[in-house]
């Protein structure tokens, strides 16, 4: 199985590394290399691929994942046990109060 990594770069595109299949709206595959950059700013003239337009339009987006500490999973409600990553608003950790 191929390992695929998708990274939203700071103020730039999604960088996808690994063997993926990307299809157009009609189901036709794009010819891809092992690393591609997909537009996130909406201004690329080569959508879905990045053409660097995010720099011209001052696109701003910085994303960081927040990971629950393993010891804190014990304090979450049973419905949240499978939740490892989440964004604000945050769940409050009853054991350490930080997550």
Average pLDDT, rounded to a whole number, is 81
Rg: 18 Å
**What is the number of independent domains?**
2
Query: What low-confidence regions span 5 or more consecutive residues with pLDDT below 50?
Result: 84-92
The CATH topology of the largest domain: Ribosomal Protein L9, domain 1
Q: What would you give as the CATH superfamily of the largest domain? A: CDGSH iron-sulfur domain, mitoNEET-type
N-to-C span? 33 Å
Strand order, largest beta sheet: 1-2-3
Tell me which CATH architecture of the largest domain applies here.
3-Layer(aba) Sandwich
- SS field, number of helical segments: 1
Q: Please estimate the helix content.
A: under 10%
Task: Describe the secondary structure blueprint for this structure.
Layout (H helix, E strand, L loop, with lengths): L4 E4 L5 E4 L17 E4 L14 H4 L9 E2 L17 E2 L13
Antiparallel strand pairs: 1-2, 2-3, 4-5
What does this structure look like?
The structure is a single chain. With 99 residues, the protein is mainly beta. It folds into 2 domains: 1-62, Ribosomal Protein L9, domain 1 (3-Layer(aba) Sandwich), CATH 3.40.5.90; 64-99, no CATH class. It has one helix at 53-56; strands at 5-8, 14-17, 35-38, 66-67, 85-86. The strands form 2 sheets. It has a 3-stranded antiparallel β-sheet with strand order 1-2-3, with no helix packed on it. It is extended, with a radius of gyration of 18 Å. Mean pLDDT is 81; it is low at 84-92.
